[in-house]
Amino acid sequence: MPLALAEDFKTVSGKIYKDATISHVEADGIVLRTKTGISKVYFVELPKDVQERFHYGSATPTGQAVTQRIDKAESTTRATPFVSGADRFASFVEKKARPAGIDLTGETHARLGRVDGDT
Fold first, then answer.
1. Does residue 68 contact residue 25 with C-beta atoms inside 8 Å?
2. 110: part of which helix (H) or strand (E)?
3. b or e along 6-33 (b: 16 or more beta carbons within 10 Å of the residue's beta carbon)?
4. 67 pLDDT above the threshold of 70
5. Smallest Cα–Cα separation from 28: which of 17, 6, 48, 44?
6. How far apart (Å, rounded) are the C-alpha atoms in residues 30 and 51?
7. Rounded CA gap, 25 and 46, in Å?
8. 64/44 Cα distance (integer angstroms)
9. For residue range 87-102, what is the model confidence (pLDDT) as tens digits?
10. 85: exposed, middle or buried (C-beta count within 10 Å: 0-12, 13-18, 19+)?
């Protein structure tokens, strides 16, 4: 974990977070760690200079928002081949099971005394 310098943060309403370290930055605020615990402070609660420091309101998202978007895109890209492969396998198993009279819910048509097409 990188060494973070503690600093004081003061909201526009006057609340002060003493000796706070920034845990992480999100799209709508920063998460601060203090002696009393962890707090999320929304950018709208912080002075303009602090908002600008973290690029709040800019067209380019920063911090965790970017990380979340990258992680989501990577997980979707990685999962797609597995999902489509699993779908193909399930279709294959279903095609093989039907001629044998196997109901994939666990009961066979023969046990129920039904023939395909009966209800």
1. no
2. helix 109-112
3. eeebeeeeeeebeebebeebbeebbbbb
4. no
5. 44
6. 10
7. 13
8. 17
9. 677 776 667 666 666 5
10. exposed
- Per cent of the chain over pLDDT 70 is 45
d(CA 20, CA 29): 14
On the question of pLDDT at 58 being above 90, the answer is: no
- How far is the C-alpha of 43 from the C-alpha of 55, rounded, in Å? 10
Buried b (16+ CB within 10 A) or exposed e, 42-72: ebebbeeebbeebebeeeeeebeeeeeeeee
Confidence of residue 1 (pLDDT cuts 50, 70, 90): very low
pTM over 0.70: no
Amino acid identity, position 107? E
